[in-house]
Write a structure and sequence with these properties.
12 helices; 2 domains; alpha/beta
Length: 361
């Protein structure tokens, strides 16, 4: 097949990494893969002025950002500016895949020469204030939909009336994320991926750590992220923060913890859950993204109730476990992460694209 992915912009965020993984693997299987993306959408003037004050340099919106496609032997075309992708930007293909709610109407408007229309739904897209109903309108377009988690499967089906969705959950690269069996640490540690994005709710996880320290005073916190925490953003005591940690160091960061905290309010999937589990680290998670189905295998604790108190209780629970109890949870986490590979996921993705081509949607 000739396959085209259409992105709003290519960057180094988790969703782009997943698309890059599929693009590379599909091309390795003999398909011809193209990626068409826009530059970053220009921010409003007031946001650009704030960035100017903060960084001392004026934002250049049309500059090509680093992305996960930079290291791949896949054709990647960035159009001249942020605007809808049209027929003139897209090569003729067997199937063309929208990858974000803004790109879905672009793909729907392309001519039949550009291929059967598919829609890879990794999130519901409302993080930037877009109403759910507005996003749901894109799910009702005549595109063959692929979703990455069960909550998205249920939500998209309910809002679109489409029951013929392809369920294609993410996997994890176990050549990058892995660890040998280990026991509990004498000085317990929990970890998190730090972000200031509201839906990540890192403040909930940080409050939970502070509450847990009242009962586990030697509890350490290990964190990594792309953003520098604001003053007071992360409690300094017994805290280790890695900014822009190289990919090859993430494995040791995950493996240095007895539990990994996932506190999101809203998430398409939650790749750090699988990455931590692949490094034999149990996860304490809110029921967002794929957390319910991933933690169900016994590799962590699902915090059903909102707020920092239940998460703090789960931290104390893991800190109080016997060596055998913790090791059983660690082994279950590893078993979950390694039970389904990127080859398995690519089989499902490829089958879904073939269905789109066969049915003409």
């Amino acid at each position: 097949m000739v396959i085209t992915f259409v992105l709003p912009n290519a960057n180094r965020l988790g969703g782009t990494r997943v698309i890059a993984i599929y693009a590379e693997r599909l091309q390795r299987r003999g398909h011809t893969v193209h990626v068409v993306s826009t530059p970053r959408r220009p921010r409003r003037l007031r946001h650009r002025l704030k960035a100017l004050v903060r960084s001392g340099s004026w934002e250049r919106p049309h500059v090509r950002e680093p992305s996960y496609f930079d290291e791949l032997p896949v054709d990647h075309r960035v159009i001249d500016r942020w605007r809808p992708v049209t027929d003139a930007d897209v090569p003729d293909a067997d199937v063309v895949v929208a990858t974000w709610w803004e790109t879905a109407p672009w793909v729907a408007a392309l001519s039949s020469r550009k291929g059967a229309k598919a829609y890879f739904v990794q999130d519901y897209g409302a993080h930037e204030g877009q109403p759910l109903d507005g996003v749901a309108e894109t799910w009702r377009l005549p595109l063959h939909k692929l979703v990455i988690s069960k909550w998205l499967l249920e939500l998209v089906s309910a809002k679109s009336g489409d029951v013929n969705l392809a369920y294609v959950p993410n996997s994890v690269d176990t050549t990058q994320f892995h660890a040998t069996p280990r026991g509990k640490q004498p000085c317990p540690a929990v970890g998190l991926m730090y972000s200031t994005r509201p839906q990540k709710r890192c403040e909930l996880a940080l409050e939970a750590v502070q509450l847990a320290r009242e009962h586990v005073p030697r509890l350490r916190l290990v964190a990594f992220g792309h953003e520098e925490p604001p003053p007071g953003g992360i409690p300094p005591e017994a805290t280790e923060f890695h900014r822009d940690a190289p990919e090859e160091e993430l494995r040791s960061i995950y493996a240095s913890c007895d539990a990994w905290l996932f506190s999101s309010r809203l998430e398409g999937f939650g790749l750090p859950i699988l990455e931590a589990m692949a490094c034999r680290t149990p996860v304490i998670a809110t029921p967002a993204g794929a957390a319910p189905e991933l933690v169900a295998g016994g590799g962590g604790i699902l915090v059903e109730k909102d707020g920092a108190v239940p998460m703090a209780a789960a931290i104390r629970n893991i800190a109080a476990m016997s060596e055998a109890q913790w090791r059983a949870m660690s082994d279950a986490a590893y078993a979950t992460a390694t039970s389904y590979s990127w080859d398995d996921a690519t089989d499902r993705f490829e089958e879904a694209l073939r269905t789109a081509v066969t049915t003409g949607s």
